[in-house]
Write a structure and sequence with these properties.
four-stranded mixed beta sheet; alpha+beta; about 50% helix; about 240 residues
Length: about 240
């Protein structure tokens, strides 16, 4: 039976295209240390066998791991091995990104599309698989919501989060942001409340800062990151003026 692969390593395998060379090497070696064969490792990550062999040349498997490999080496022992779902996901993401690039290139003359990409580029979350934007200006958040529904998902659902200072009224702030964003039914996560400091800062925002996050964001994040790249490459640095 093939050793179980921790979910953390499977997640890293799914991020293969974005890993640096040394990160790929460490992932390959971590999989080998579990007792996987080179063939089983290559089902998870698209690495040439020669490269993988070079990475793992100093790794010594235990006698138990070697025996386990031998026991599953016959064709009949391959029955029941789980399908490489991570491999399918890599193919799916490649397709999503390719389509996103074409989508963006065809909309470079649409001011709202480009403005939304630029807004996300400057203010949106860059954390993998998180499509969200945080701001204290309700107009910015309304623009983000409208842009998401115009270009990502007309039926997108959102979750709100607040960052308040001690003394702010959480219930009042939630009512304010629901009204201002137009997301009247959106749920809130637990509010972060910053404790009082030295007292030198007097301009605390009465309703705090709000984050609007898109639910089920993985595919959206992959599209937006490609869109940013397209816009950046087409509207690159402005020429220097004298």
């Amino acid at each position: 039976m093939r050793p179980d692969v921790p979910q953390g390593l499977l997640d890293r395998a799914g991020e293969w295209d974005d890993l640096h060379r040394w990160e790929r090497s460490e992932l390959g070696k971590a999989l080998r240390r579990l007792g996987l064969t080179y063939g089983e490792i290559r089902e998870l990550i698209p690495v040439p066998k020669g490269t993988l062999s070079d990475w793992c040349r100093d790794i010594r498997l235990s006698p138990e791991q070697i025996a386990a490999i031998e026991s599953r080496s016959s064709p009949s022992s391959r029955k029941g091995i789980p399908v490489d779902s991570q491999g399918r996901r890599r193919v799916e993401l490649a397709q999503i990104r390719a389509e996103a690039r074409v989508f963006a290139q065809r909309r470079l003359d649409e001011s709202f599309f480009v403005a939304g990409v630029a807004l996300y580029w400057g203010e949106g979350s860059k954390t993998r698989n998180s499509c969200s934007l945080t701001n204290a200006d309700p107009a910015v958040l309304r623009t983000f919501v409208a842009w998401v529904r115009a270009y990502l998902d007309a039926d997108a659902q959102f979750v709100l989060s607040l960052h308040l200072h001690e003394g702010n009224n959480d219930e009042s702030a939630q009512a304010y942001w629901r009204s201002q964003t137009g997301l009247l039914e959106a749920p809130f996560t637990k509010t972060y409340i910053k404790a009082a400091g030295t007292g030198h800062r007097k301009n605390h925002l009465p309703h705090g800062i709000c984050r609007v996050r898109v639910r089920n964001p993985s595919d959206h994040w992959n599209r937006v990151i490609v869109w940013i790249d397209v816009v950046a490459s087409n509207f690159g640095p402005l020429p220097m003026t004298a």
